[in-house]
């Protein structure tokens, strides 16, 4: 069998994959990514924010079908304890007036173990991560420098994870400024943007329990609404080509639940395959699954 080659964009059409945030629902993007690769889609570069920054950073290191399969393996082995270790130490930290609930050292170790490169500019495929300046809320684009710090900054949910200092600025989750950075991708020269959204849990029977779980659920709802607004805005611009892969619906998995990764990936790949076969990439517009609804 021939060795898989990294995918690259054509000179005529410069496609960017934009990967949004969504906590544990980031697993959905893996299935979407696998289906798009099988279809022959070839991103020239990647843009990621929050959980999407984790997926974008890993895939940029091995932008092949094999890399996407390895990303699936990583997600399926992931536990909430590794990513969000909320325990007695977290409680004592609050009593000491610490500014966050969860220590990010576990996530740092996870990234250091799996990312095959150390500087963003050394990735096999160009990757750009979006964070937010904690002081003024402005978007900060990270394209060079230590990849682990950049991912931690992009995924630093305010109050949950500690902010990350880069170049003298304290940075937090990219979702504060721009969780689905479509505008960033076009600004970087994409002529065509394909968005891989995590969606939101539209079919939960009750609100998630616990402060972190509820915060992450609320954030996922805000993310979906922001994506709809951005998509509707770009839909009126005839000079750009925007395609959004439909998110899963109905979905009854909280973005705080890391136990459903295998199921989410399989389902996302199947449904994205169906969308592609039905001519999804030929149609513009915002998928109904992302608009406000209840199932």
Automatic annotation (TrEMBL):
Keyword check for tRNA processing: no
UniProt motif DGA/G: location: 173-175
GO BP annotations, alphabetical order: lipid catabolic process
Motif (GXGXXG): 21-26
Example of a GO MF term: hydrolase activity
Keyword Lipid metabolism assigned: yes
This protein's UniProt keywords: Hydrolase, Lipid degradation, Lipid metabolism
PNPLA domain: residues covered: 17-186
A Pfam family of this chain: Patatin
Catalytic site positions: 50 (nucleophile), 173 (proton acceptor)
Placement of sequence motif GXSXG: 48-52
PROSITE patterns, per database record: PNPLA
PANTHER family: BLR7027 PROTEIN, NEUROPATHY TARGET ESTERASE/SWISS CHEESE D.MELANOGASTER
Designated name of the protein: Alpha/beta hydrolase
Organism annotation: Rhodanobacter thiooxydans
């Amino acid at each position: 069998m021939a060795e898989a080659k990294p995918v690259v964009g054509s000179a005529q059409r410069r496609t960017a994959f934009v990967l949004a945030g969504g906590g544990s629902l980031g697993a959905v993007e893996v299935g979407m990514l696998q289906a798009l690769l099988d279809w022959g889609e070839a991103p020239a570069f990647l843009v990621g924010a929050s959980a999407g920054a984790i997926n974008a950073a890993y895939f940029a290191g091995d932008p092949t079908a094999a890399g996407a399969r390895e990303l699936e393996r990583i997600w399926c082995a992931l536990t909430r304890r590794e990513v969000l270790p909320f325990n007695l130490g977290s409680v004592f930290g609050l009593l000491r007036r610490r500014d966050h609930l969860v220590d990010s050292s576990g996530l740092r170790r996870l990234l250091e173990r799996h990312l095959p490169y150390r500087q963003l500019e050394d990735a096999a495929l160009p990757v750009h991560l979006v964070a937010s300046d904690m002081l003024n809320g402005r978007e900060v684009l990270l394209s060079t420098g230590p990849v682990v710090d950049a991912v931690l900054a992009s995924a630093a949910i305010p109050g949950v994870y500690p902010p990350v200092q880069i170049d003298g600025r304290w940075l937090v989750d990219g979702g504060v400024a721009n969780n689905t950075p479509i505008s960033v991708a076009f600004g970087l020269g994409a002529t065509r943007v394909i968005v891989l959204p995590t969606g939101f849990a539209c079919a939960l029977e009750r609100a998630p329990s616990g402060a972190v779980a509820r915060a992450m659920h609320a954030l996922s709802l805000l993310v979906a609404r922001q994506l709809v607004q951005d998509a509707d805005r770009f839909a009126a611009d005839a000079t750009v080509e925007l395609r959004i892969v439909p998110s899963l619906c109905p979905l009854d998995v909280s973005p705080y639940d890391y136990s459903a990764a295998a199921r989410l990936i399989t389902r996302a790949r199947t449904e994205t395959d169906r969308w592609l076969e039905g001519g999804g990439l030929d149609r513009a517009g915002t998928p109904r699954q992302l608009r406000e609804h209840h199932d």
